[in-house]
Structure formats: structure tokens, C-alpha cells
Design a protein that fits this description.
Length: 490
């Protein structure tokens, strides 16, 4: 493909992408294929001779689309949203064209510099404390990671390294590894598995803690656990608080947890992967109370801020603790110039050396939507979740399990025997229609169906449509159950 063909094919591809997203409502949300479908559709090895563009282009519909779960369909209500917008897609094209690996300032100055400014813009957008911003001229600052899981892991490794250093005077005869074997971190039982996995990978103990009736981790529970573990000779060093849990969008009590962490010199990391975007709207910021006590905070603009995957924003109160944990000086890497503003060397802020120019999509999106456009988007999505909640509440056969806070509704069939079996069956049958797609979670041990507002194309008509499908499927599941129990009784 030469430049001229690239220009032509590029325009065709943009048209294809625009048509795909514009007409996505017409495609079944979930594919009807069996595992292994794709291998049967393409040759077993790469072609010896180049193929034509048309051959490749036609295979998008023949090979790929039949196996795509359409995350941006307005009837996709599973998991949490995955960001997507025209400006985000265009920014990624530019990032691919520049194609730099911005591991240090010198490796591509704009890549580092735009990221530092965008992380400050984002922090202001969410109302985060100033000490997280580069503009505060303190040790704080932000970095774009690929995912929230990486952000949790990176923060935990920084906390681990600090904890080992701090424990040295008390345990002068122990090696770092022996001290590490005493370290323990905490999370709520509602936290994402990313937290537990981070602890597993870092070889530290992790203790999930129980939550209150609102599924919130409270200070008292944490304090009891810390005292118990200290009594056993362990060293509590890291608490992961979640704002907007994956299962039900519950919020841990940052104020209470933060006060304990400060008093006990424990690192507090806040995972707001999904809910973070809502803090663009001041009316949702009460959940943020206590964030000034956190050592690190992350959220995924690639979930709910219209930013295409991947883009997870992580801030640190003291970035030198992360750099100290990660730094290995490689002589081949060019040093920063002596003059000008100090810039972070982002290679020391993440696991990989290489990094994409991801701040471009933040820049495009924040400029092209503006703060008001982003607020409008979040508010509309929250309103749609409340509309769905109202529909569920009007139908006596169902119950809302936890009040809707943001864009997620959790509901189930209200059953005399309170059984999970029928709710499981209901979700199964709903997803079999392939017209809408939902997932489930467990709340206090009970099976609950999650309905998330995910696509930027979802409107009230789509919610009414989805609710209609849910009601219709529920009717047939309940009828089938009634017939079965009648015939058993006869
Ligand atoms: C609260 C929370 N934390 C972490 C994650 C993991 O996100 P990622 O895929 O960015 O690692 C999720 C995913 O939904 C989440 O909801």
C-alpha cells in the first residue's frame, strides 16, 4: 500500500467505521457463533503473496463482525461502558501515525509534556486535590496507565517498597523478602479482582473485608482487622478503597478509611475505575469526600469519559515513591536537558518501558466536548439508569436490589422462595435473544442482574425496548416455572 492508496483506503475505512457505529442498533448485540468459529474461516497460515485490499476489507464482514459483541450497541448493558467517540478515534489515528515510544521526555517531548498537562486538566475536571497536580510544584503528579489493574498494581508496588524501607529500623536483621512476607493489604469484599491479583503478583497477603448493608467498607471494620493483624506480627501497609464497585457501584467510606490510614502510616489507594468520570459533575462529588487523604487515585477515562480504550489515569501524592520503587538507570537512555521545566521520566512510572501517545485522545475529547458537554453526557446516562429503575419499580414482579447511584441498575425477580435459580434462568434467556446483553453479580450471596448504561447512543427508547424484552422473557420464564411446579404437584 503506497501513500495514495492509503489516502483512498483510509477514507473508505472512516466511512465503514462511521456506518458501523451509526447503524449499530440494527445488529444483534451478541454473536451467534460457537467457540473456534474463526479458525474455520481463514487459512491456517499467512499468505505467501500479498493480497488485495478488497479481499481484506470484505473479510471484515465475513470473518470479524459475526464474532463481535457490539459494546457500543445502545442495547449493550453488560459490564461497564467502554469509552468511544469520534474525537477519540481520530486522536488514536494521529497517535498511530506519530508512532512514538514516549518512555522519556527526550524520546518525544510532546508525548510527555501533553500528558502532564492533560493529567492536570483531568484532575481539575474531577475536583481532585491540588497536591495530585504537577502545577502544584510539589512531588505529586499523574500518569496514564493502560488499565485500572495496572494502576492498582503500580501503586501497590510503590507502597510495598516504602513499607519495606520504613520497617527496616524495626527489623534490622530481616531481609527485604522476609519483611515483605509480613506485609498485608486490605480491600473490601466488593473490590475488583484486580486488587487481589496485584497483591498476589507482589507476593503480599491480601485480606478482603466485609461491608455494611450499603456494600461500603467502613473504618471500624478496617481498624479491627489492622489491630488483629498487628497482633499476629504482620505489617499492614496498603488499603484499596473502591468508589463505584464493579458489582453494584457501591462506595467505600474514604473519610473513615483515610483517617485510619493516615494515623497508621498505611498507603491509601482509591480505585474509581468506573465512577471516577461522574465526578466531572459536582453533584456526585460527595462520594469523593476524604480523597485528600489518599496517596494515589485512579479512574478509567476509557470507561465512562468517551475515551477509547486504553487510558487509565493514575495520580500520586508523592510520585518520588513510585519512581524510587521502579527506577533502574539505563545508560542508553538520553538524559533530560538541564534547562527548562522539570519533566517526569514516565518510564519510571509504569511497568513497561514503551508507552503510546495516549494523552492526545484526552486533549481532543476535553476540547471538543468541553466540560459542559462531558457533564451533559454523564447526567444523561445517569438519568437513563434512573428511568430504568422507575420501570423496574413499577412492576411488582421485580425488585431493585440497591438504589441506583450512577449509570448502573441492579435488579432481580422478587420470588417467594427468594431463589437464585430463576433469576439465573432469566438472565440466560435474556442473553439468548441476542437483542440485548446483560451480566450478573452477587449481593449478600444473592444472584442479581446488572443493567448498565453503556453506549453513547443509548436513549430512552432503547431503555424502553430493553425493559420490554426483559419483561417478555420474564413472563415466559415464570410461566414455564409455573407449569413445571403444577405438573410436579399433580
Ligand atoms: C472498580 C473496578 N476496578 C478495576 C477494574 C478493572 O479495570 P481494567 O480493565 O481497566 O483493569 C474494573 C473493571 O470493570 C472496575 O470496575
Amino acid at each position: 500500500m503506497d501513500t495514495e492508496e492509503f489516502r483512498r483506503r483510509g477514507k473508505e475505512m472512516i466511512d465503514y467505521v462511521a456506518d458501523y457505529l451509526e447503524n449499530i442498533r440494527d445488529r444483534p448485540v451478541y454473536p451467534e457463533i460457537e467457540q473456534g468459529y474463526l479458525r474455520k474461516l481463514i487459512p491456517a497460515a499467512a499468505p505467501q503473496q500479498p493480497e488485495s485490499w478488497n479481499a481484506v476489507f470484505q473479510d471484515i464482514e465475513r470473518v470479524i463482525m459475526p464474532g463481535v459483541t457490539h459494546w457500543h450497541s445502545p442495547r449493550f448493558h453488560a459490564y461497564f461502558p467502554c469509552g468511544n467517540s469520534w474525537p477519540g478515534i481520530l486522536a488514536d489515528i494521529l497517535s498511530d501515525a506519530i508512532g512514538c515510544i514516549g518512555f522519556s521526555w527526550a524520546a518525544s517531548p510532546a508525548c510527555t509534556e501533553l500528558e502532564t498537562v492533560m493529567m492536570d486538566w483531568l484532575a481539575q475536571l474531577l475536583g481532585l486535590p491540588e497536591h495530585f497536580m504537577f502545577s502544584s510544584k510539589g512531588p505529586g503528579g499523574g500518569v496514564i496507565q493502560g488499565t485500572a489493574s495496572e494502576a492498582c498494581y503500580v501503586a501497590l508496588l510503590a507502597a510495598k517498597s516504602r513499607a519495606i524501607r520504613n520497617a527496616k529500623p524495626q527489623y534490622p536483621d530481616l531481609s527485604d523478602e522476609e519483611i515483605a512476607s509480613k506485609l498485608i493489604c486490605y480491600e473490601s469484599e466488593q473490590a475488583h479482582t484486580a486488587a487481589e491479583r496485584a497483591a498476589m503478583l507482589a507476593f503480599v497477603k491480601c485480606r478482603p473485608l466485609s461491608t455494611d448493608q450499603d456494600l461500603s467498607l467502613r473504618g471500624e471494620v478496617l481498624e479491627i482487622a489492622i489491630n488483629e493483624d498487628k497482633g499476629k506480627g504482620l505489617i499492614p501497609f496498603y488499603v484499596l478503597a473502591t468508589l463505584g464497585t464493579t458489582g453494584c457501584c457501591a462506595f467505600d467510606n474514604l473519610k473513615e478509611l483515610g483517617a485510619i490510614c493516615q494515623a497508621q502510616d498505611i498507603w491509601l489507594h482509591v480505585d474509581a475505575a468506573y465512577a471516577g468520570s461522574a465526578f466531572i459533575c459536582p453533584e456526585f462529588r460527595s462520594y469523593l469526600e476524604g480523597v485528600e487523604l489518599a496517596d494515589s487515585f485512579n479512574f478509567n477515562p476509557h470507561k465512562w469519559m468517551l475515551v477509547n480504550f486504553d487510558c487509565s489515569a493514575l495520580w500520586l501524592r508523592d510520585s518520588s515513591l513510585l519512581v524510587r520503587a521502579f527506577m533502574i538507570d539505563l545508560p542508553i537512555l538520553i538524559k533530560q536537558p538541564e534547562h527548562g521545566e522539570a519533566m517526569p521520566d514516565y518510564r519510571h512510572w509504569q511497568i513497561a518501558l514503551g508507552r503510546r501517545f495516549r494523552s492526545l485522545k484526552l486533549w481532543f475529547i476535553m476540547r471538543l466536548y468541553g466540560v459542559e458537554g462531558l457533564q451533559k453526557y454523564i447526567r444523561e446516562q445517569v438519568n437513563l439508569a434512573h428511568e430504568f429503575e422507575r420501570m423496574v419499580n413499577k412492576d411488582g414482579r421485580f425488585e431493585i436490589v440497591i438504589p441506583v447511584r450512577l449509570g448502573l441498575a441492579c435488579f432481580r425477580l422478587r420470588l417467594e422462595d427468594d431463589s437464585d435459580k430463576l433469576n439465573e434462568k432469566l438472565l440466560d434467556e435474556i442473553n439468548k435473544t441476542r437483542l440485548i446483553h446483560l451480566t450478573h453479580t452477587k449481593v449478600h450471596g444473592r444472584y442479581v442482574i446488572r443493567f448498565a448504561i453503556c453506549s453513547r447512543f443509548t436513549n430512552l427508547k432503547d431503555i424502553e425496548y430493553s425493559w420490554h424484552i426483559i419483561q417478555k422473557v420474564a413472563e415466559s420464564v415464570l410461566q414455564a416455572e409455573a407449569q413445571t411446579s403444577n405438573s410436579t404437584n399433580n
